[in-house]
Predict the 3D structure of the following.
Amino acid sequence: MKNTASDLFKIIETIIPDLHAYVEKSMEGQGIVLKQQLASTLAKDLNLVQWIKNGGINATNVNQFLRTYLEHSQRMHHPHYIGHQVSSSHLASAVADFIHGVINNPMAIYEMGPSASVIEQTIINWMLDKAGWFKGETIDNFEDNPNNGGGVLTHGGSMANLTALLSARAKVAPEAWDSGNPNNLVVIGSEVAHYSIARSISIMGLGKKNMVSVPTSKSEVLQAEHLESVYKRTQNEGKTVMAVIANACATSTGLYDPIDEIGQFCNEYGLWYHVDGAHGASALLSDKYKGHLKGLERADSMIWDTHKMLRTSALCAAVLFKDAKNLTNTFQQKGSYLFHDKEKPGFDLMPYTIECTKSGIGTKLFWVLAAEGEKGLANYIDRQYDVTKEFYSIISNASDFECPYYPESNILCFRYKAGPDTNEFQLKIRNELVKSGQFYITSTEIKGIRYLRLTVINALTNSEHIQTLIKTIRAIAISMNPQP
Ligand SMILES: Cc1ncc(COP(=O)(O)O)c(C=O)c1O
């Protein structure tokens, strides 16, 4: 393939029928979800060394490569994909990916991609509005409004959590940017906060041990009544609390921490309150489920992934601040060639992100919204949360299965209970199931007990698929542990 527009579009025309069939068959539930192969064999089947050394891919030979590539890809649109918290994406977001791939506008500064910049700011305002942190007239009004929150899109929720914690540090210990951390900073949060929180704390040089855990219930929901004693302990030890973190919702269980109660505590003591809504902030769109985030107005910052419940392809997340000043203070650093005052018709996002080069990821969500409208996305969230409750009933009514809690979101855990009562047995079931390619599910531990885990993120997964899942798991379990 030469680097010409006509060669590109010839390739695209050639691959379209295969891609079309791949996604359509996946959606119809034809074939298996995942075919795994030894990595070294797959590299050979894909002919990687030859392609890398010699080049020469073109419209005549591209399908040879693509067919092997697709054969060994995870079929995210297959209704038996009920795995990780990454969306079985709305296909409209692929349009954004394609346009970005062709025009390549890394738009951290306005002049490198005015359209994508304007889309990002409008999307941020839309999200702020859903959080109750946008007070302007319309979301395409970019005038400074002292009552508006602020935010920026990042390449993923982990990066967004790190940004929020940097912002908390800028508030609590502004000298840290120049002089390094004071040696007494701690973060308080659930013992099951997402691992990106602990990583952020380590990356920031606080040391992971300075994450102070609050006890959780038997379903791993933060118990707000312990906050006071945990906080008092940190005070007696001479610590300064940098932030308090809530899960909305928790990664393993999909259960929401008590957002309002934690917020009341933080507001009472003047502590920075961060809500990790990577997965569950999308409930803000739903009249039926937004109550899970009641009390969000008490928070200082939150994060919200779009590649989880807002149906975009990976990867796009937002870090949002109730007070826009906290966004602007996060990176107290100047780069004269970029941040100089100049007469310009737009705004530069670079001062507010960890990333220097940044792609127009807001366009992914824009395309999904442009296809479905916000009501369409709200219906999707309602449907996924609703059917998960239905799946809970189906699974817990099967005499050889049990669920540890009633689901609040679209994450559901369960165990096959008729076999050996060990964590290893559940893991073996999951491994055999995934190896068979019939379903893709995950597993997790809650309070040391291993469960099978579903993220009901595919809009096509229905109760018949769950009945088939139960039968398939049962057959696997019985074959692994035949009764005498
Ligand atoms: C609660 C929570 N926070 C943060 C993250 C990290 O998000 P990302 O995978 O986009 O980096 C996840 C990912 O599953 C999560 O569940």
Observations:
- Residues 85, 156-158, 161, 194, 196, 247, 251, 276, 278-279, 305, 317 surround pyridoxal-5'-phosphate (CB under 6 Å).
- The first strand starts at residue 150 and ends at 154.
- Residues 5-70 form one domain.
- The CA atoms of residues 385 and 410 lie 5 Å apart.
